[in-house]
Each structure stands twice: as C-alpha cells, then as structure tokens.
Write a structure and sequence with these properties.
Length: 96
C-alpha cells in the first residue's frame, strides 16, 4: 500500500484558542457569577483554554467547552468588551 501526496504543506505553528475574561473592573457579585459559569461549562468536551485578566496580569483558570451561544452568555454576563477569543482561526471574540 502506498500513500501519494499531491501537495506537501508546512502546518506552521499550531496555536490553541484562548478565552480571555477581563475581570479588572468587575464587582464581587459579577466575579462570583463568572466563577460559577466557568465551572458549569467545564466538562469532558473542553475545546478552549480559559484565562482571566486582572489589570495587566493574566491568570490561567483551566479549560471549558465553548460555543457561540456560550460566548454570547459570557458577553452578556460581564460585557462584550471584557471577553476575547485569541488563537487559530479566531477573530477577536468569534469562534471558528
């Protein structure tokens, strides 16, 4: 058996997507709701790394399962300006 490649491409650097949640200006009520939401959407089908931004510091907080609907939920919870998605195929807050 032989496998013939029509084209050879360099895959380049493979980056994982990262959901960044800026909590710098959030009050404790919103931070508590955000903690609960992150835990709720954590599961066995995780597809994105999550980190929080406090001032200029980024802190990793695990992984979660993210869809467009879930992303919109986070935007409504803490404000769209505080939610960004970075990485392969991501266009500043939109999923692939």
């Amino acid at each position: 058996m032989a496998i013939i490649a029509n084209e050879i491409k360099d895959f380049g650097e493979q980056k994982r997507k990262i959901l960044t949640l800026d909590i710098t200006n959030l009050d404790e009520v919103h931070k508590d709701k955000l903690r609960g939401a992150i835990c709720y959407f954590n599961g066995d089908k995780n597809n994105i790394n999550v980190r929080v931004k406090v001032g200029e510091e980024f802190k990793p907080c695990g992984q979660m399962y993210l869809t467009e609907d879930i992303l919109n939920f986070f935007k409504s919870l803490i404000g769209a300006e505080n939610v960004t998605v970075l990485g392969t195929g991501a266009k500043n807050s939109n999923l692939d």
